[in-house]
Amino acid sequence: MRTGAVTDVRVTVVGAGLAGLTAARALEAAGHTVLVVEARDRVGGRVWSQQLDNGVWFERGAEFIEDGQTAVHRLAGELGIRLSPTGMSYSDREPRDLVGTVARGDVLAGVEALRTSAPTGTVAEALERIALPGRVRRAIAARLRVSFAQDPARLGVEVLRHDAASFSGREAYRCEGGNQQLALRAAAELNGRILLGHVVESIAWSQHGVLVRWHGGQAASAACVVTTPATVWRRLGFEPDLPAWKAGLLDRIEYSHAAKIAAPLESRPDPSAVLSVDHAFWTWTATRGEQPAEPAVHAFAGSSEALRGLAVVDGPGRWLTALQDLRPELAIDHHSAVLSTWDDDPWALGAYSTGSLGGSADIAALRAPVGPIHFAGEHTAGDWFALMEGAIRSGQRAAEEIRSGPGQGGARSIP
Predict the structure, then answer these.
(1) Domain check: are 197 and 234 in the same one?
(2) Domain boundary at 133, 165, 197, which?
(3) Residue 234 forms part of a structural domain
(4) 165, 191, 221 — which closes off a domain?
(5) Burial grade of 327 (CB within 10 A; 0-12, 13-18, 19 or more)
(6) Are 160 and 195 within one domain?
(7) How many domains does the chain have?
(8) Do 210 and 222 meet the contact criterion of CB atoms below 8 Å apart?
(9) Beta strand ranges found along 176-236 (DSSP E)
(10) Does residue 240 lie in a domain region?
(11) Contact 231, 349 (CB under 8 A)
């Protein structure tokens, strides 16, 4: 698509991640003309699939889909994408420390005690308040640190109701051919109205419409959906500035710090999920619908402290050593390992939001439009934050706001 002025657009969407593509897809289905502008040279945002040297798909970003995530399941069905069972549970990980395996029953009992005795405060404070054996407390803290990729002292206890805090044994799923298929197929339905590699430089707005500018071009539209992570919203150059109540909420959102690694294996192991209590990472082997597992091991480290301890900034070497020590039964190909980081991605500056706003009034205000500008992304998804499910739901919500709003383009503002 040409990069000059675009005048026949009803809605401009900033960002071609799952939130932006879902919004654009829903708006086009409702008869609106839509333009999607994306800074990267690919669609998907933090959903990004690649292949290892042996052909196994590696998810650089979002990975697991669970049964209760109905929006992902529905979108995959509409796009003709098969969800493959993994043979393992995202939520149920065997915790291992220097002594050995921490008993699962003790961990589950500790989690239940944590949830019932901690109405307020941080996860770290709640763990200190309840009487638990030290190994159990450390295992629970490590599990939550990894899943939310944030220090428990920075996590409010409200995160305990999130899917990432589940310790259930439900089997997880992934998309056949990689999770990025969700974005690629959604984008293919948009008739080419996507500009990749175009960095938005300013968003001028009034109650009458929006003008989105990028180098060498611009688009005038009745409404705009902004789906970029809150970490980079100020780069968009709003003219005039967003009101203080909205800017303050966006600035308050905290993001997790995480990295992933994947490496080929010399054989196909059984599906598994193991947590390193001491190094704050977890590792898994999984199927894509066929037993045994694929010939690859994957790992995810969460929190800035864990990334420093594994020297991720220097490459995968120290982490691979810790991984091999944790999983001595696996013959890992260290030379073909792939490391994925997000803190150094200029359009993310973190992995995913940590749900740190708290109250429902704040979430409602975070979602609220400002004039003709609407906001989507997993950070606006309330209890579905940090998930592909949340991104998809947020895009659907923003599209519905535009379809049902005043003049199908304007919207109310929260003072």
Answers:
(1) yes
(2) 165
(3) yes
(4) 165
(5) buried
(6) no
(7) 2
(8) yes
(9) 194-195, 200-206, 209-214, 217-221, 223-226
(10) yes
(11) yes
β-partners of residue 206 are 209
Cα separation, 339 vs 36, in Å, equals: 29
Q: Does some domain include residue 61?
A: no
Residues 247 and 192 in one domain: yes
123 inside domain: yes
Instruction: List CB contacts of 301: < 8 A, sequence separation 6 or more.
Output: 146, 149, 258, 259, 260, 261, 279, 280, 281, 307, 310, 312, 319
Tens-binned pLDDT, residue by residue, of the chain (415 aa): 444 566 668 999 999 999 999 999 999 999 999 999 999 999 999 999 999 999 999 999 999 999 999 999 999 999 999 999 999 999 999 999 999 999 999 999 998 888 887 677 889 999 998 889 999 999 999 999 999 999 999 888 888 888 778 888 899 999 999 999 999 999 999 976 999 999 999 999 999 999 999 999 999 999 999 999 999 999 999 999 999 999 999 999 999 999 999 999 999 999 999 999 999 999 999 998 777 999 999 999 999 999 999 999 999 999 999 999 999 999 999 999 999 999 999 999 999 998 766 678 899 999 999 999 999 999 999 989 999 999 999 999 999 999 997 644 444 443 3
**Residue ranges making up the domain that contains 102:** 94-165
Residues in the chain: 415
Report how far Cα 26 is from the mean position of its chain's Cα atoms.
21
Nearest to 392 by CA among 92, 35, 69, 3: 69
Kindly state whether residues 245 and 198 are assigned to the same domain: yes
Query: Are both 110 and 137 inside the same structural domain?
Result: yes
Q: Report residue 350 as tokens.
A: 């973190």
